[in-house]
Design brief:
The protein is mainly α. It has helices spanning about 5-10, 20-25, 35-40, 45-50, 70-75, 95-105, 110-130; strands at about 30-35, 65, 90, 90-95. About 50% of the residues lie in helices and about 10% in strands. A two-stranded antiparallel sheet has the order 1-2.
Length: about 130
């Protein structure tokens, strides 16, 4: 299933029906997105592709339809991951020293017990809400 209008598809490519995986995207039950092959090959972001004039009105051979899952996987591998090398942990930015401390910190038995009880309470609350 392609979630873009014909007008929107034509902005990417006039001959969008020739883009790789078009037939699958049209007939498949999953949601498909257009991806620029140059973005993968040259490791360029959407912004960089636009600045270089490589984003709109491309040849069908430069584009591919991917499922949302495949597209997400491409962008979360190694250096393509937005948080790669930024020292992020739990959604927050921390220094390398802080990350080392948090990873090596030993939790006391009391803390482990409290965490376990908290998880059990949350689990019980979820069970009660679904019943």
């Amino acid at each position: 299933m392609i979630r873009k209008s014909e007008k929107s598809l034509r902005r990417y490519c006039q001959r969008y029906t020739e883009i790789e995986n078009y037939e699958q995207a049209l007939k498949g039950p999953e949601s498909y997105v257009i991806h620029h092959k140059k973005g993968i090959e040259l490791n360029l972001s959407k912004v960089e592709l636009k600045k270089a004039g490589l984003y709109w009105h491309r040849d069908p051979s430069e584009l591919i339809f991917l499922t949302k899952k495949e597209h997400r996987q491409i962008h979360t591998i190694g250096e393509r991951n937005p948080s790669y090398g930024k020292g992020t942990f739990s959604g927050h930015k921390h220094s390398e020293e802080t990350i080392k401390k948090m990873k090596s910190h030993k939790k006391s038995e009391e803390t482990k017990r409290k965490m376990s009880e908290s998880r059990k309470k949350r689990w019980e609350n979820k069970k009660c809400q679904t019943e």
